[in-house]
Amino acid sequence: MEQDVQDAHWHDRMYNNRALVPDSAAYLERWARRSADVRIKHVCTLDIVYGSLPSETLDIFAPQVAAPAAGAPVLVFIHGGYWRALDKFDHSFVAPAFTAAGCLVVVVNYALCPGTADAPVSIALIGEQMERAVQWVWEHVADYGGDPARISVVGHSAGGQLAAFLLATPWQTRSPRLPANVVRSALSISGVHYLEPILRTPLLQTVLQVTTDEVQRCSPCRLPPPAHGTLLCAVGGNESAEFLRQNQLMQRAWGEGLVPRAEALPGLNHFSVLDTLAEPGTKLHAMALELLNQGA
User: With the CA atoms of 83, 282, 181 and 144 taken in that order, what torsion angle do they form, in degrees rounded to the nearest 10?
Assistant: First the structure.
């Protein structure tokens, strides 16, 4: 029993990013302020419905420069918050650095765990929601100036798990109308690629209630690698040992052909690493542009 308690305490420490970054609340407040300003100043269409649940909405930010005839490359961004917190409106700040580079940006929402007794929410359900969101993007993004053949998914933390999950999705089993490579590439930032440790992390498991079946079905490192595509992984160099380990799992599972880069970015924590995604000239921003511009 003592070992179990010690193990739970260690996992709570490894996965409690807000405690590991003392000024984490300041990051979240700043993201929300910047995002509200972005929605005022930039051309965007908000709260587009992609499914039947109240949480199934997304925002589209238009490119700031003329798109090619085939349409602009599309960045679909999925926020973090351990599948239980935050909102797309907290992450609009990601868009301008990419719309200025000629990309169309889609920021998606999803239901938050644990939901309610009448409408429970699981990580598996959120994965299904993200599949519906990306299918909607593939079907409709051309109407907004995007190229459905150039969809890249970028996610942070829980969103990193979802980004890798979507690259591995067997799309033609979802709908025979879909191409096999709906998602052409993905960038997982501080992603949780193996869910088994959550079972031993009381801080998370008391809310998420992850099952052993979900560990198998929703851990990207346990999924068959896609036949096509590129996944890049990045993590802040100052993150916990577990997040540094999680960052390496996809390259080990899928190989360097599909996952050519799994980088720890020096001097960055779980929150400051996301700031750099929205800062032109940084390595993380360049990694995202590399994926978006493939085949241009």
Answer: 90
Bond from prior residue into 114 cis (ω within 30 degrees of 0): yes
- Cβ-contact 292, 73 below 8 angstroms: yes
Q: How far apart are CA 199 and CA 23, in angstroms?
A: 27
Burial class (CB in 10 A: 0-12, 13-18, 19+), 8: middle
β-sheet bridge partners, residue 216: none
Distance between CA atoms of residues 51 and 48, nearest Å: 9
185-229 pLDDT per residue, tens = 999 999 999 999 999 999 999 999 999 999 999 999 999 999 999
pTM, full prediction: 0.97
Task: Check the CA dihedral 243-247-250-253 and report its sign.
Answer: negative
